[in-house]
Amino acid sequence: MRAAVLHETGQDKLEVLDDVEAVGFGPGKVRIRIRATGLCHSDVSAMNGVLPQPAPFVPGHEGAGEILDVGDGVSHLTPGQRVLVCWLPACGACPACKRGQTQLCLAGFMNAGTPNFRRSGGDVFGFAGTGTFTEELVVDAGCAVPVPDDVPFDIAALIGCGVTTGLGAAINTADVQAGSSVAVIGCGGVGISAIQGARLRGAAQIVAVDPVAARREGALKFGATEAVAPDGLADAKQRITAGEGFDYVFEVVGKSATARTAYETTRRGGTLVVVGAGAMDDFLQLNMFELFFDEKRILPSMYGGGDVLRSYERAIALWRAGRIDLESLITHRVPLAEINEALDHMRTGSALRTCIEI
């Protein structure tokens, strides 16, 4: 079968091969025919080594498709069923799950060290224990979440990561209050979803911050009240908040420099939400006095900061009701053979989300 493979960490191109085999099928597992997958910035971060991932590997973790086969002991899924791929399934038994913080379950991370694929040259891993840039995928049954038949594969794929992450950051993690002021730094698919979440919660001002003009224009269509380049953020802070700072600031880039800017843009007593996934050697510096004196809440948000299964259901309900726009998030569509074109769209910022149709 076909799959896009990164041979070595640090390479910027994927090779689409037709000799890849999905492995590991057996009890408790399912085989999925992937139909659509989104390109998330985390895939690029894994390729360049910002996020740890054994290589060679198949990137992709934001996918949807249909069940081809189920292993022994899998009773809640059947062949032909439409599913999205959950890259961070909850085990239900660990301390985090028992506390109700299923997004912090580590069981899914353990899968990243087990090969999902094989070629004649040896084992091939799947990013985040999945690897959706492929025609077929074998994963734990908990990674396959049923979705209604009226949810298109491309929409289901987005809900599998970017939409859930952004909406959840605003609704679950920040708990944005009506009438508040919000700034979102980084307006790709996740940042746009955070904007939509803030709009749903009734934020009065939502400032989108991004260096790419097309993304700034797009943010206005999804609910931002204004959009500025990074060098315009200080002026927006002064105009909108009289220099005090925003009630909520979302950092959706994953770099210490933008996180520091986000901290400085947050009002005293306000909330900074860190959504972007950054590198282990990139440190955010805060001095102990400002940390105490400013009393700003610094809240990391992992996968939307809440139970992902409930978050999926909420996103589908909001999409059905027309309260969130997911179709317009997909600005580019390419076949798997043109995956490197999709990567170019990601790196230049010309795409909000690119859908790879398989």
What's the multimeric state? Answer: single chain
Instruction: Identify low-pLDDT runs.
Output: none
Portion in strands: 25-35%
Distance between the termini: 11 Å
Largest sheet: 7 strands, mixed
Mean pLDDT: 96
Describe the structure.
- The chain has 358 residues and is an alpha/beta fold.
- The protein is 29% helix and 26% strand.
- It has 12 helices and 19 strands.
- Strands 4, 6, 7, 10, 11, 18 and 19 form a 7-stranded mixed sheet that branches.
- Helix 5 packs parallel to helix 6 and helix 5 crosses helix 11.
- The radius of gyration is 20 Å and the shape is globular.
- It starts with a strand and ends with a strand.
Provide keyphrases for this structure.
7-stranded mixed beta sheet, globular, 358 residues, 12 helices, alpha/beta
